[in-house]
Amino acid sequence: MQTTAVRVLQVGCGGYGAFILRGLLDLQAEGLVQVVAGVDPAPRGAGAEVLAEAGLKAEADLDQALARHRPELVVIASPIHLHATHAISAMAQGAHVLCEKPAAGNLEDAQAMAAAARQYDRWCAIGFQWSYSPAVLQLKADIAAGRLGRPEELASCVLWARAHSYYQRNQWAGRAWLDGRWLGDSILSNATAHHLHHHLFLLGADGAAAAPDRMQAALGRVNAIDTCDSAVVDVMVGDTHIRHCASHAVAVEWAPLMRGRFSEGLLDYRPEAGGFIFQPRQGSARVYGDPEAHPHHKLRHCVLALREGTPIPCDVNCASVHLGLVEALQRPHDQGPSPAGEAPAELVGEVPMRGGSGLAVKGLEHGLLRCWANGAEAPAWFQKIGQSHYQG
After folding, report:
1. Rounded mean pLDDT of 90-114?
2. 42: pLDDT strictly greater than 90
3. Contact of 288 with 275, CB cutoff 8 Å
4. What value, to the nearest 5°, has the Cα angle with vertex 257 and ends 253 and 258?
5. What's the CA gap between 378 and 340, in Å, rounded?
6. I need a surface site. Which of 15, 137, 162, 343 has the fewest CB within 10 A?
7. In sequence order, what are the residues at sequence separation of 6 or more whose Cβ sits closer than 8 angstroms to the Cβ of residue 366?
8. What is the rounded CA–CA span in Å between residue 131 and residue 133?
9. Residue range 304-356, pLDDT digits in tens
10. Rounded to an integer, what distance in angstroms lies between the CA atom of residue 332 and that of residue 329?
11. DSSP 3-state assignment of 84?
């Protein structure tokens, strides 16, 4: 068992990276880690502030920083299309990796990351934070043990308004292709990836996500992007139906709605009542807890994996199931935009949103709520993606 602080280097310190870096500094205050460097060619805003608070100067070259600091763990929060390059460099230099979700911009890159982990005998964890939550891990174990009965349906609905500024924050937001390579950044691959992956993770074996047997989707686009900003996805894993409904083109921003139907009762996600709650047909409710209660638990988990040998619950192989699913639904045969229906102009309006203003489709939130709660069809203007088989 390792007793010294784990040497950690972070790649990408702006945006969400600043939030992660603050989590690492909290662990440093506990004596669990030593943050040895932050690599970012041009840190701005919160990222620059947190680096300054930590007494660190941003370094521009990852390979030089790896050679100079010899970290044991590299946390990657760089742009999605750079995940594979940065992760493989870190593992080649002897570090284990925690990479933010999604694993990569495309399945080919994720497979290269998995191959590097095998080659260099390192692990490459992916930061779907719910998959590291004690609440979710206990729920997953109970499902596997049959304590909830047979899983029949898992469903989620995520309605998160996103302003124009969301798509203007970098060069790759909403892009299908970048420098001739598939990226597929969308509401399915990025913002609500946690929730779609979560269903697959719950149904998978220990340390794995369940691969789909069949899948289909209906995709919509309102903003000037290459991919989709609204979707209804249906997946079959054995006899279990997964439905995921999501949109950024709405005038609301609500907590995720999630439910599950099992042969022995109902699973609900109610943050105000304690998180995931299973109500059996007979007996008292079982409260598992809220995975949002400890957003930095993935950092702690990975540190404990180095110090105590704690298993990694979600590595790049596990996370690649979600990546392969979304790529199969979104990727066109040529280098054009993803298939998606365009909303009728008379339904689209400019509305105030966090971060400015953005486009919303009149009544879309109610339609997607019906899709989630009652199994209704996707709005007629969504483009249907025919049933296909998972090829990941």
Report:
1. 98
2. no
3. yes
4. 155
5. 12
6. 15
7. none
8. 6
9. 999 999 999 999 999 999 999 999 999 998 889 999 999 999 999 999 999 99
10. 9
11. helix
Residue that has been written with the tokens 């620059």 in this structure? 48
Residues 14/65, Cβ–Cβ less than 8 Å: no
Q: What is the mean pLDDT of residues 157-182?
A: 96
336 or 91: which carries more pLDDT confidence?
A: 91
18-29 average pLDDT score: 96
CB neighbours of residue 167 within 10 Å = 18
Tokens 């996707």 — which residue?
A: 378
Whether 313 and 301 have beta carbons less than 8 Å apart is answered as yes
Token representation of residue 124:
């490459």
Name the least confident of 52-61, 86-95, 212-221: 52-61
Domains of the chain: 6-129 (3.40.50.720), 134-291+315-388 (3.30.360.10)
Contact 221, 229 (CB under 8 A): yes
Token pair of 347 as six digits: 């339904």
Tokens, residue 28: 């440093």
Q: Which of 206, 187, 195, 160 is nearest to 329 (CA)?
A: 187
Paired tokens of 261: 């139907």
Average pLDDT over residues 164-176: 96
Match 């080649």 to its residue by tokens: 92
